[in-house]
């Protein structure tokens, strides 16, 4: 699989894919679009790649695994001298703390360290190839058909990456075909990710439960405050009316925060609903600009719309694209100087539509640009009062755009303000 050039150019570095084009092969291998890459050179043209959608790569572990693989495959003078010694190879594998299996295609020897033998319930001393295949097949019985049908022994094939459960533990399994002049076979690596999954699940369950429990009473509170403001419960004194207004605005903000938390939770779990239909993007953009004008006026900012006269048709979820535009427009208005304008521009290209949101604000710090679409991220150069959001808006926006087969990115060539581009496939 081909790595993005930016990743290959920065070995031993966690590189965000927020603004990179990532091939579909990586999404299929990871089960979702990876958010970070890290790569390390092993020997010759062989590189070890860490692609993840759950946090950042562990560079220390990557370095350790690289060193182990270098010795295993034959890097370095000492390993070169003992390249043909199966005893040497077995010693190296046995020294690794995580389960690892290597099946040599040329000699049909099988090398299994103690952690792997315990995991597969097979003897560690001179196991037969069929015992390894049987043990792996047993572990993989509950995984997807694609994984179950993959090669388990010495046959060449594409890399396989999947997760499985065994004895109450969760493992991330990587199977790679190694083809070197003096070493050919299949390598299996098992990484225990139980604690990572447990922590992520506990966090997501807490956020989801708290959010659901808070939204219902808050909705009732906002409704009651609205009735009081409208005078339905009688005329309020001026001071009381002002306090009710403050309470209502803060309650509405809490509801928005809760909605953001629920949306990001659903996006992470792949459960956010989308209703795709052929729609005119020009109409959606114009409507989003119109409905955000009142918010922009609070900051003395005007929204200027530049859209083509002809319809720009695409298969989209109108509500989610409107949500995307509302987030970008409100951010631009909030961080723009008084008296300026925010431009929202729609252009139809050969096979995609580009929506640009352009402001004349102070722009974004270089530090923030690298984590722009990360959850709970905010620019530290802004004041506390400016950072009134959840830090989830851009992460949600990116998730929505990705689900449409598009991409969103910051135009780094612009030196004044901030310019965001959203590109969506046109209807074929």
Automatic annotation (TrEMBL):
Q: Which UniProt keywords apply?
A: Kinase, Phosphoprotein, Transferase, Two-component regulatory system
SUPFAM superfamilies under this entry? ATPase domain of HSP90 chaperone/DNA topoisomerase II/histidine kinase (SSF55874), Homodimeric domain of signal transducing histidine kinase (SSF47384), PYP-like sensor domain (PAS domain) (SSF55785)
**What Pfam families does this protein map onto?**
HATPase_c, HisKA
State a single Gene Ontology molecular function.
histidine phosphotransfer kinase activity
An example Gene Ontology CC term for this record: plasma membrane
Instruction: Give the reaction(s) catalysed.
Output: ATP + protein L-histidine = ADP + protein N-phospho-L-histidine
Q: Where is the Histidine kinase domain?
A: 209-428
| EC code | 2.7.13.3
Q: Which residues form a coiled coil?
A: none
Q: Keyword check for Transcription, yes or no.
A: no
Tell me the domain of life.
Bacteria
* UniProt key word Transferase: yes
Protein's recorded name? histidine kinase
Task: Give the originating organism.
Answer: Sphingomonas mucosissima
Please spell out the taxonomic lineage of the organism that makes this protein.
Answer: Bacteria, Pseudomonadati, Pseudomonadota, Alphaproteobacteria, Sphingomonadales
